Fold this protein.
Amino acid sequence: MKVPEPLLEFLAIPSVSTDPARKEDVRRAGLWLEERLQALGFRTELQETPLHPILYAERLVDEKAPTVLVYGHYDVQPPDPLELWDTPPFSPTVREGRLYARGASDDKGQLFAHLLAAEGAPVNLKFLVEGEEEVGSPHLLPFVRANRERLRADLVLISDGAMVAPHTPTLTYGLRGLCYLEVRLQGARRDLHSGAFGGVAPNPIQALGWLLARLKDERTGRVLIPGFYEKVRPVPEEEKALWPEPHEEALKRELGVEVLPGEEGYSVLERLWARPTLDPNGVWGGYQGEGSKTVIPAEAGMKLSMRLVPDQDPEEVAGLAEAYLREVSPPGYRLEVRRLHGGKPFLTDPFSPPMRLMARALEEVWGRPPVYAREGGTIPVVAELKEVLSAPVVLLGLGLPDDNLHAPNEKLDLINLERGVAAIRRFYELLAAPSGR
Ligand code: BES
Ligand code: MN
Ligand code: MN
């Protein structure tokens, strides 16, 4: 497939939602989309928020036809480290059937498949596209609650994930949730000479180490926060029977590691899809420059993410984590815990009527039936859409595990864009034909 020119345009807009310097660019990406949807005959509305606009668009063709709500996001993650990209992140480039750019897979490229499939679609379409997914969708969740009537649909369709392997169409029926904290420890009021004060001064980096060590058991890999596992639902054996073959050796090779450490007693797939985890994502404190500097820093900190599974609740887990951090934090330090963002876990029926219809469309296009998978990542609004609209959700990931999401050299395989468009079109046909329902 030749890359559509407009997709190159879309990818060239550096819509990095977390970067205040890119605020205008994020907006530009939203406006660009609005124009495209208008050209396709949609009525559009750009809803301003305190951060980045939400785009709502609808094209109602026939009141008797089913209505599909398509969700996606037009914001992207920061492109750094820039020096590791083979071609610049916002100069989309095709090499060997792959399109390289920040956002190629997450999510502009996948969203674009839905723009292509919308041309002449025989169903009523609503698009809900945000510019804040990569910062936790702070304004979309209230928007969905406030607009439940307008958003009403027979099903929700989303492409913002991956197939489990090449040539393997995949229907995703679960996502993990997220609870993300920033933790800071303060010792003395200012940095101190480590000779003049070492021996009496509190060292927040050391204290952070002690704290970190109490969060997870080194031997069993279990998270030690009391109550953390209380709401975790075990995976029924019938569900595990659906899962693809374990891919442990391939995964080790891909990651360049000899072991895949994690919670004792659970398979790799279960640990990725259906068990909660805790991971420090960044730590800081003290001197990080060239050579040495003898200093005891006044402050140290870390970013801590917890991936959640049904029926854990992000707010509740944040509360448990904070209480535990306060309990085990060594005396003599000021502890500060900030809640950065969260998202509820999502789980749905893999064999709902629209899932079955999509399975048929996928089999026709790929020549093989889909596999059913959960994913370890988070899309904060999905659980909310299912709940507020009480509509079935179909997650059709068109990316691949090696797409380098959030990393240098993000890409999308063009074959999956092409087949994705064909499958979505076929799905709409089946959905519109009374016999297909
Ligand atoms: N599209 C991803 C989520 C995803 C990744 C789903 C891989 C399935 C497979 C989404 O854009 C994302 O990156 N979400 C963030 C959460 C957000 C609150 C920052 C994530 O999962 O870290
Ligand atoms: Mn995404
Ligand atoms: Mn992402």
Summary: The chain is about 30% helix and 20% strand. The mean pLDDT is 97. The two ends are 31 Å apart (CA to CA).
